[in-house]
Fold this sequence. Notes:
With 320 residues, the chain is mainly beta. 5% of the residues lie in helices and 50% in strands. The strands form 2 sheets. It has a 16-stranded antiparallel sheet that branches. Strand 3 and strand 4 form a beta hairpin. The radius of gyration is 21 Å and the shape is globular.
Amino acid sequence: IQFNKSISFEGAYHFMPTVKDPLLFLENPFNVNTLGPGYRLDDLDSRLYPKEMGIGGSFAIHQNLDRCFLTLQLGFADLFVGRQPIAWGSARFVNPTDILSPFTFNELDKEERRGVDGIRLRIPVGDMSELDIGYVANDSLKWRESALFVRGKTELAGLDLSLVAIKFFDNLLLGADLSGSIGGAGYWIEGAYVFSSLFNETIIQGKTAALDDSLRLSIGIEYNFSDKCYGFGEYHFNSIGSGDAEEYLIKTQTLEFGQGSIYLAGKHYLNLGTTYTPTPLAPVTAMLIYNLTDHSFVVAPSVEYNIAENVYLTVGGYLA
């Protein structure tokens, strides 16, 4: 809704009937953390029906109030207040600098980032630069459990450069994102270092916990081989991941993973993706996620068909 030249409102509500194996309502077969802290003050009950999901039920209805925010154009900046998408990073598979509401590889029914509750001020600085400042609240509105970010973006010698600092819980993230092109190919380097418990000691069950600092890095390249074929490759490094598959479950349950919205439990990953478009109405996509440490992998092929205007049918799968 555009009230006038300076004030607008955006809202979005998702209503999602789902049919699947009853066990899949109770556990995630990929064992990935999809939400992290969540960063919402309050929320609707996710499940509308049934209220209590038992092993015997294969049908459920879920809901999600995903957008509810005002945009105020102040002349010198744009101010966003309410539940809104906040996302950045140029990497295709894992964005180390994006910890507020990241995508995971197995999200089938999402095309946009999950909305978070906060206040954001975006200030243009020149034609190709901006300063982005924001506060994102958790359900308790406690300062220690909320997030504060400052991000600058500019163009430097034909390259897109972003620097970001995020205070989340008691931790500080410092990140950088650089992207450009060379020889007809695009490339990106995105990394983030987290100083754990920098602002306060982390207490677990009455005892001081020594959390590990972490470094995550994504380096990739993309290329259009023809008008119909596109491909990319990306290497991802996660310093707090494990080199032993037997430790994966323990790793994903630590505070470092939960607070940082990290879901990949290994250290080294190679990710490949391609899209082939035999006709404009039917793109075919395939993705490979390969763990270089234990040689496990997931292949995700899919094909989408544009049945009619604004109507799409997608068929795909995950082969692990």
